[in-house]
Amino acid sequence: METEQYRLNNSEILFIYEARLCNPNGDPDDENRPRIDRKTGRNLVSDVRLKRFFRNYIMAKFGEDYIWVSTVEGRHVRADERLEKISKDRSPEDVLKTCIDARLFGATIPIGKGDKGTRGKSYAYIGPVQFTWGYSLHPVEVIDSSTITSIFMGRPEEEEAERYGTIGKDWRVYYSLIAFYGVVSGHRATSTKIKPTDIMILDNLLYKSLILDATTRSKIGHWPHLYLRIEYSHPDILIGDLRKYIDVEFNKDKPIRDLKDIRLNFNQLMTIIDKYKNDIKQAFVYESEDFEKEYQFRKRMGEIIGENNVEPLPHDVRIDASLLRL
User: How many domains does the chain contain in total?
Assistant: First the structure.
């Protein structure tokens, strides 16, 4: 395959979503409490959690075969067993051909089995799409946890079925408006053989997965408000973390419980976009009804780089299983 097929320009991503009365990202080392920056009171969310929404949505809609970091028939398995499920001859190339998350985010793929108790050799692909950790644009309040218990019966064939119980904590935040920054590296696109439609699938399904996958007891309450991807005209430019150009206003004496309790000012961001407008090829925007009403983000982008250069999401592309493969 020709390398040129996989050459992309650089892009930058800004993704803002809310989490209401839920746990955006629990810390397993701290009773699964929401991750909090103790100095600032801001909610932290790992990039792994964000990508898990996307992966879970693909698996639920199209099956686990299209995701590298997944299960095998519902079981969590070692990477070498996952590879055997995908490729009979254990070829890392087959992983890239089959699994869209490997092409987007990269993958560590075993290429040899080690001796008993040791790890074999592996090949690491660095994906062109990378996200920083997300953080809330304001301090958050954690709801005092209630203790939750679950009771299960023993096997019914036992003469006296024994009861088994588990006790845990139910940690949540009242409200968190979370922002992520991401980069699509044109220079690294060739290493995983990513194709332009893979980026279109990411554009369409990342924010959608937040709606449709975040429906478990601890995650229900998520909703996307803004997804922006700025594509540049060449692979040698990046503005940098777009979140630092957002000014956030809120009443420090009033609890934050809703989007209307926060005021975002995008003037700095629009100024920096105007500075780089000659290097911007196109922008792709999803904004919620609340965001469009309050901020008219896509309209403001169009006034700077031209309406024809701002495409509302989703892309007009039919995503089926065949599109997920090379």
Answer: 1
